Give the backbone structure.
Amino acid sequence: MSALFREAFGDDEGITVTKASGRVNLIGEHTDYNDGYVMPVPLDMHVWVAGRSREDDLVRVYAADYGEWAEFDLKAMEYDVEHLWVNYPQGVAWALADSGHELLGADFAVSGDVPIGAGLSSSAALEVASVRMFRELSGLRLDPVEVAYTGKRAENAFVGVKSGIMDQFVASLGAPGRALFIDCRTDEYRCIPLPVGAQVIVVDTTVKRELASSAYNERRAQCEEGVRMLSENMDGVSALRDVSSEDLERLGASLPDLILRRCRHVVEENTRVLDAVKALETGDAARLGKLMGASHESLRTDYEVSSDELDALVDAAREIPGTLGARMTGAGFGGCTVNLVKEENVEFFSDRIKESYMKSTGLNAIVYRV
Ligand code: GLA
């Protein structure tokens, strides 16, 4: 990063470097904004920021991977429609300033190896790395949970995507090679080792997530509608986290079919995450794999956020000997699948999944090992 910073700003005297990782979600999809449970794993892919403070109120940012420059004034922050990427560092500066922190101007050089638009949370990684940089340069007191919520606030209120806390939380608090179980209501979390003898493999459809943000916001609204309707007949329901499968069986008939299916996905997915915690803690990789498979089915049929390409990858993975589980990961509509594969079959899996995907879609899949 020193070389990049020098290239951009002439010298690298007194710079600080921060980073944050992308993520893949093992299980617990579309549960975070329903106060539920998730279990992402940080990737060994990062966004780095090299920075140093300035005397004035400007923040100048060089995006090395695009060869582009952008800047903003800390005293007049506005959404930049020309350089969309700068809205992540600018958004966190806005969120920090809005909660009363005094920020110093700064020069930033940014680079990363988290694939962009693949559903592996490059934007949350950029937000968290940027919050860490402002924290360093301006001497702010922020614990890692506050770092995560600052990133979320930037995303929700400045960038305008109503995402939950999962991506920023794991970027801020995840430990390499471990799953991070998060209770998105209480912010309690726990790192859990991945199963011995199995590997987590990410496969990228290479299809960008078209329409993802409008469909995402629509799903959120449908969940809220479900909560509103269920609470007419149930006490103490402020989110789908408060609803059990039994409650849904009892009261489901009063909901429109679409809302019932959305609610059922979330309610059952929360149970699957809790079961997955047990499976990981008892080293039961086969059980975890089955839960991942059930999660995919539910996302495909009840939540309707999968895509032909994601289904093609999941179907292909299921046919490959040594696959314990496969599912789409992240918001959906494109992006990646997450697969749990027996260690001795990993090479074979990587070759076969690319072959099958090419045959069924004519596209090249990209395989990443976690
Ligand atoms: C995106 C959002 C997360 C989460 C997932 C779906 O990654 O940023 O908050 O809602 O989708 O599980």
User: Anything to note?
Assistant: Residues 29-30, 32-33, 163-164, 166-167, 330-331 surround alpha-D-galactopyranose (CB under 6 Å). Residues 198-369 form a domain with the Alpha-Beta Plaits fold (CATH 3.30.70.890).
